[in-house]
Amino acid sequence: MPHYRDEAVVIRTHKLGEVDRIVTLLTKNHGQVRAVAKGVRKTSSRIGARLEPFMVVDVQLYEGRNLDTVSQVEQLANYGAVIVDDYARYTAASAVVEAAERLTREDSSSKHYLLVLGALRALSAKEQASDQILDSYLLRALAISGWIANLTSCQGCGSDQTVLFSVHSGSVSCANCALPGSVRLGVEGIAHVGSLLAGDWQGVSQATSATRATVSGVVAGYLQWQLERGLRSLEHVERA
Question: 228 partner at 20 to 30 Å CA-CA among 4, 5, 47, 157?
Fold first, then answer.
């Protein structure tokens, strides 16, 4: 069974036995990988600190039947050092990696990896509100996974006077063509969803706090509908 090497983001860890740990990695070229990191919980371990959530690593793994094995790790970026000291950013980052773990279990691409990397980098930079980075990540991650929000025109009549968003279909509609499960966001709310989806931070900053709060609820509902259950981490995310 061959060794292979890849860049990866650590998205989850849990204990195995007395000194080992199972690490869930989102890799750039091999999708989601679960691997055993042996001896990393020993105080003498040289790689244990490199295999914590939010770390970006260059990792060499040995392919196994059920779980791969970590054989070498080099740190590429330590976004966790900044994130864990800020509760709002920590909870947002936790929701990012939980969503990434759910969305990439069966299928993944380098786009998923780069999107998670960008979200963690943005959270550590502290240049944008953490909850808005999270909402932008969730919308874009859903789009990569095939659930692309349609914000261009009413799904019923084609009008561009859209004010409602359907959390079931990801479509917008005018006041006369509302679908079941639609939420009235208004023109500003629809525009805010578009800014989040495009990563247009100037546009995001123009939304009122009320619009941001309403859209955040819609994003959470849209995610929950597509994944068939919500994220536990979202309950703890601080909203501005």
Answer: 157
